[in-house]
Amino acid sequence: MKTLMILGASYSQIPLIRAAQRLGIRTVAASIPGDYPGFQAADDYVYANIVDADAITEAARAAGADGIATCCMDTGLFAQGTACSRLGLIGPSHEAVRLCTNKSLMKEAFVARGVQTARFRKIHSEAELEAAMRELPFPLILKAVDQMGSRGIYRCNTPEEVWANYPKTMSFTQKDYCLLEEFIEGILFGVEAMVKDGKPVFILPDGTSVFQGFTPTPVGHYVPAPELADVTDQIIQQVELVIDALGFDNCPVNCDFIRRGDKVYVVEATARAGATCLAELVGTYYGVDYYEQIVRLAMGLPLDPKLGGEGEHTPNLSHIMISRQSGLLTALNNDNPPAADILDLSFNVSVGDEIRSYTNGRDRLGQIIIKGSSLEACRTRLAQVLELITIEIAPQN
Ligand SMILES: Nc1ncnc2c1ncn2[C@@H]1O[C@H](COP(=O)(O)OP(=O)(O)O)[C@@H](O)[C@H]1O
Ligand SMILES: [Mg+2]
Description:
Elements: E1 3-7, H1 14-22, E2 26-31, H2 37-41, E3 44-47, H3 53-62, E4 67-69, H4 77-87, H5 94-100, H6 103-113, E5 120-123, H7 126-135, E6 140-143, E7 153-156, H8 159-172, E8 178-182, E9 187-196, E10 199-212, E11 216-223, H9 232-246, E12 251-260, E13 263-270, H10 278-286, H11 290-299, E14 316-321, E15 327-334, E16 342-347, E17 354-355, E18 366-371, H12 375-387, E19 389-394
Parallel strand pairs: 1-2, 1-4, 2-3
Antiparallel strand pairs: 5-8, 6-7, 6-8, 9-10, 9-12, 10-11, 11-14, 12-13, 14-18, 15-17, 15-19, 16-18
Helix pairs in contact: 1-11, 3-4, 4-5, 6-9
The chain binds adenosine-5'-diphosphate and magnesium ion.
The site of magnesium ion has 2 residues, from loops.
């Protein structure tokens, strides 16, 4: 029996564990100790810190792992790629994960390969910050280079805002530098892709629904995305350059993009499937279980030819339920009967929970995934589904 080590044991890894088990593969969840459901779900587990590449390499060797996978979060990505390189397993390489877990190295690699990306400066000091503000046009965006989920990232419209946010950015990062980038005002979108033996298996642009916080945060995705139809070729060309720039050879790919006018800019890219229901979106669109394809890739098994194939594609969308106010959750009811076109309708909160007004993905109330004959049909259906959900939040003093 073959063995797959899965990095992380939180809810986000459960679909990956289940997919491997369906394929008759033994799963070993690796994580620091904690009350994580993956320990129960997996066939076996080891306590190892998934940010520690040495610990994960040793754990994978000891477990006799034939593959290592993780999805939807960057936490284990560096260790995954490093351990795969050291143990000769199929996965992103050490070099690839080194680049995509540091936004500064990533941007330098983009520039070297000619990827269209916002202009930026690496900032080590207040003097460099001052100089960079004279070179780059406002609005700007300050970024911690080693965080995710918009932590340590602030849009700045004026020099005063830059000075106010700089210490905040530096307090988030482990590094002694950060990035200052030109803020591209435009339409946010994403791309999911998969690379096998250096070649893209599919490249799928998705539309992004956005919540405006300190930075725009995705609260939903949809395919197809009509607002991108006229720049599809440019998007595919940019994704191919990104794959080349970061040396992605065997991994899922998740990219953030912004469209301004007729030009698309790459914000960032990483060697894993995206969060916020993106694995479900890809799977539904191509009619495959995408988690299973991620496992197959890591284990060297053939992929489903429907992934990236020309066959019928299913429009679908995801919607993250959020609250614009903080308070106590006093009522939560879903009166939607189960239906074939509601692929998921689940909550992360229950009555009595304290709710925070939405700032990022950790504040979500729940999620809905809907498929339909067209994007329009999905949107109409989503509105109907939301009508039958009651969420009441009482302000707290
Ligand atoms: N140069 C930019 N111009 C405009 N918006 C940006 C830019 N860089 C990042 N953003 C916005 O900030 C969000 C977070 O930045 P990103 O670099 O993707 O970091 P994270 O790892 O936190 O996702 C992006 O999804 C995008 O909405
Ligand atoms: Mg991002």
